[in-house]
Amino acid sequence: MQQPLAYRMRPKNLDEVVGQKQLVGPGKVIRRMVEAKMLSSMILYGPPGTGKTSIASAIAGSTRYAFRMLNAATDTKKDLQVVAEEAKMSGTVILLLDEVHRLDKTKQDFLLPHLESGRLILIGATTENPYIAINPAIRSRTQIFEVLPLTEEDILQAVEHALQDKINGLGDYPVTIEEAALFHLARGTNGDLRSALNGLELAVRSTPPNEAGEIQLTLPIIEECIRRKALTHDKDGDAHYDVISALQKSIRGSDVDAALHYLARLVEAGDLTIICRRLLVIAYEDIGLGNPGAASRTVNAVLAAEKLGFPEARIPLAETVIDLCLSPKSNSSITAIDRALGDIKQGKAGSVPDHLKDSHYQGAKTLGRGVGYQYPHQNERGWVNQQYLPHSLKHARYYLPKSTGKYEQALASRLQQLQEWKKKSSS
């Protein structure tokens, strides 16, 4: 039986890795390790199909070390012993240990001395947060790197390469693929390259050639093969972004029924990652200080949705959409930081006032660093009148509170009080 396309297209060196340039790009940490021949054990964590196994395979290919793959949940201590013995006899072995968060104490205790010797380079792969799910003894002996979901451009690049590759890919098949189908393959798999490639292979192998001898992949074929419906059959795929935009604008406009409608369309399309990211953006951009508790509830709901997956994920997502829709709205946080960024981009920075500069080094006082700083906690009001902004910006105002929610009304009241104190102190 032929191995799946995603397996056959695994990279043989770091240059062939799709995406993850923050780790394997020129000058980045994993490439530096490989080029300096200073590999250390590591844990790669992130969503399925984003390249954890590919990175491990590429590291092995680039270093020419032996490469072995085991699963912490299903393989035994004896399997680990076989790999360790190989490392003793033949030199360094790279061990990709999938589901490393499932490593029990017996296997862990066996691995620890081998990791310390450096003969066994462990690359643990997990979808779980290693700071929560992995034993501290393993964490302390590894570097932890987050593997990010692939972009649409990353997946499109990999798909096109697979269609052209005559050795490991599908280059021997006379395939044509509609633009809408290609974009849905990239978008509908939510950054999971494994799903995209295996869905592509199923589509190619199960679609009979037409009268011209071509295997023509249409949007309905790709929908069926990746089990994800497209939002519409528009050629350019703009509906994908239109629905996301409509969801945010409906929540911003407090129309709960419209927001639930657009959420349902995204749920039906299976876009869990996109929904979660967008709701987090909305919670902080549009609701913000109008109801800061809603942002915390959104974070918890997103975590629950990601743990549950569809179809159950629709429940916390719907609850969050209703909560955000009916919350008081405030964009004062985003407008405040954008005003501050606007000044920085225009070169309006200025020098930090001397009394605010770091004074925790010898000679700081000689330079006037920290001299004259007043400690607010020593004042009964918890506030003293002193300048914090650079002199050239001392009159700048970035935060302009709104009065749409009780919380921000309280912030506005406190800000007004501080401004009155400042005015009295300066007069």
UniProtKB/TrEMBL annotation:
InterPro entries per UniProt: AAA+_ATPase, AAA_assoc_2, AAA_ATPase_RarA/MGS1/WRNIP1, ATPase_AAA_core, DNA_pol3_clamp-load_cplx_C, MgsA_C, P-loop_NTPase
GO BP, one annotated term: DNA synthesis involved in DNA repair
Keyword ATP-binding: yes
GO molecular function, one term: ATP binding
Pfam families xref list: AAA, AAA_assoc_2, MgsA_C
Ranges of residues in domain AAA+ ATPase: 38-150
Superkingdom in the source lineage: Bacteria
SMART domains referenced in this protein's UniProt entry, alphabetically: AAA (SM00382)
Coiled-coil residue windows: none
Keyword set, alphabetical order: ATP-binding, Nucleotide-binding
Keyword Cell inner membrane in annotation: no
UniProt record similarity statement: Belongs to the AAA ATPase family. RarA/MGS1/WRNIP1 subfamily.
Protein name: Replication-associated recombination protein A
Organism: Enterococcus aquimarinus
